Amino acid sequence: MTRVLLVEDDPRIARFIARGLAAEGYRVDHASGGREALALAEEAPYPLVILDRMLPGMDGAALCRTLRDNGADSMVLMLTARDSLADKIEGLAAGADDYLTKPFAFDELLARLQALMRRAPYREEAGILAVGDLVLDPEARTVRRGPRAIELTAKEFALLHYLMRNPGKALSRARILSNVWGYSFEPGTKLVDVYVRYLRAKLGDGDAALIRTVRGIGYCLAAPDGPLSDGQ
Length: 232
Prior knowledge:
Elements: E1 3-7, H1 11-23, E2 27-31, H2 34-43, E3 48-52, H3 60-69, E4 75-80, H4 85-93, E5 98-101, H5 106-118, E6 129-131, E7 134-137, E8 142-145, E9 148-149, H6 154-165, E10 169-172, H7 173-181, H8 191-203, E11 211-214, E12 218-221, E13 229-230
Parallel strand pairs: 1-2, 1-3, 3-4, 4-5, 10-13
Antiparallel strand pairs: 6-7, 7-8, 8-9, 10-12, 11-12
Helix pairs in contact: 2-3, 6-8
């Protein structure tokens, strides 16, 4: 039975979602605010989190960011009454894996959750990866460049892990979105570009760039003098 943490302050919406998911065989724990949600998440990991964007006190984006900073690798579906591009970017940048705009049909919510659960969890793959002086350990969830330890969010780690599993390959944005975020569509947020920018800043590429822009395609991770191949 898949466990779901539902974070929603509207009792009517919370009952609607909880009853529907329970009927589909999910076990639902409900929190009406950020502090309560953090306490539940600390007790045991949740494969799925449904998170309202507009929460009293700690809003949904701040809560999602805190969960990621605490090491949570749950799949997070953010519910929002805001449908502007800026709000979607903010939610995804905070660590959400998908978003759903209110009002919504329960069938769509269920389909989104099922799609999230179908994603191949990168954390289950073993084997230390190295490209140049960059080393990633999937089991320990650590990244080092030379002697320097690099702290990454859960989604930054997932993106870097995917790039390092395909060294020297030019990967399209569509392929990255599919494998890291599980999207079969372009969300219109330049999500890949945003997260590549985050990674580049943390890796400190400088003159020894590891993540290269491949014009007309997407991105490639390779040692500074390494060759590229067509990996779209």
